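User: Teach me something about this protein's shape.
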Amino acid sequence: MAHPLHVTDDTFQEEVINSNVPVVVDFWATWCGPCRLIAPIIEELAGLYEGKAKLCKLDVDNNQQTAMKYGIRSIPTVLFFKDGKLVDTLIGAVPRSHIEERLKRLL
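Assistant: First, the predicted structure itself:
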């Protein structure tokens, strides 16, 4: 089973922007309750879409540069990238169906 890839300020460009498959990035923090609600969803989708899309997690406390660049003000925030461009955003602990529906649109 695939696990979400943990990206950082240093690896974001390579793993997300330069990716040849669509990328979903979960912006989260260890102290964030709602983030813990969507973590298993991101985990599950990482396995389901392995090879078709990349699911990533970025800890906003340790990677503030990227969080600021994308204007992350509340977490969890899930950003969707295709061909290196930000194409969609979900804010808050949303149901799995919302995340998966947006992901399918990118494939």
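Now, about its shape. The CA atoms of residues 40 and 63 lie 21 Å apart. Strands lie at 5-6, 23-28, 54-59, 77-82, 85-91. If you'd like, I can walk through any region in more detail.
User: That's plenty for now, thanks!
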